[in-house]
Amino acid sequence: MSALQVAGVVAFYMCSALVMVFVNKAVLINAPELPLVFLLLQLLIAVLLLRFSALVSRGAIEIPGFEFGTVKKLFPVVFVNIVGLVFNTLCLRGVEASFFQIARGLVLPLTIIVSSMHTRSVPSWNVILATAVVTAGFFLGVAPSSKVPLIATPSILSLTYGVLSSLFIAIHAVLIKVSLPYCNNSTIQLAWWTNAGSAVLLFPFVFLGGEASILRVMIMDPHWDGTVFLVGSLVTGFFGFLLCIAGLLSIRVTSPITHMFSSAARSVLQTVIGVTYFGDLITTNRATSIVVILGGTMLYTWIKAVESQTPSAPPRHPTSDIEANGGEKVEDEEIVWQVPEEKE
């Protein structure tokens, strides 16, 4: 794959992720009472797009039929996925867009802890060091500051949502690897099961939580402009579907290190746009926190790249820089240490 094509995939991934965060935030500002309805619409749009893609792809994309045995085996990954998405949405609703990545800054440390518990292994001291750096960045960002006005200070509940979201992302990363064999090792089939299953699990809670009634009242209110909510739901549903593809492409056609740097660049742009568009407040502590979290994450990526190098093995493993190897594809099974994609 040419350098131009690689750059195009990376740009596609970054743009999709940025659109998701900021349109999500705009919708939640417009209708903060409807987080579950908003999330349900996103899931349903993703399901419809996956079904449509299967129809027009002439067999390239296969949607599995309903099998109770498969549903039972995939229930854990579906359940963890929807719980993580709910906490993720509630966190974004309660914090500024630029602070969102700080609130979920424990994704990497918790992923390493959960993965180590699952594999019953102990990470190297270098990995522990990188984890400590990221953790320090998180606590630096959430530490109380007299320079932050009360209205811009995230609540304890919002921070709790962020930590819980990070925890479920970590568990989800482990469950994905365990669940893929039940989907013929197809990420598309797993995406179908998780989106469709998550929509089914979430649907009753939209009514139990009273959001269906709230939506009906808001629709009847002549003063409420539902354009932002409706258009935002369509846009985020569409870009959520694209992000699934973009993240997979970004890992497959670039090296993990390049992919991580693109994620870091996205985080910087996310902060800049948050300050410019939403008027988010960036203090020295918050800016330093973002830099420390990104630095620790990239340090972890570099450490794992070095640790996976073996003198006698050919360069066909996760650390192979595909841009330098003429676009040779890295097999999914080999990207076992890749930092999981954060749910937007």
TrEMBL record:
Membrane topology: Multi-pass membrane protein
Keywords: Membrane, Transmembrane, Transmembrane helix
Membrane-crossing segments per the record: 6-24, 36-54, 74-92, 124-143, 155-176, 196-215, 227-251
Gene Ontology cellular component terms for the protein in this record: membrane
Region spans: Disordered: 309-344
Domain Sugar phosphate transporter: 9-300
Compartment annotation: Membrane
Protein name as annotated: Sugar phosphate transporter domain-containing protein
Organism expressing this protein natively: Mycena maculata
Species lineage: Eukaryota, Fungi, Dikarya, Basidiomycota, Agaricomycotina
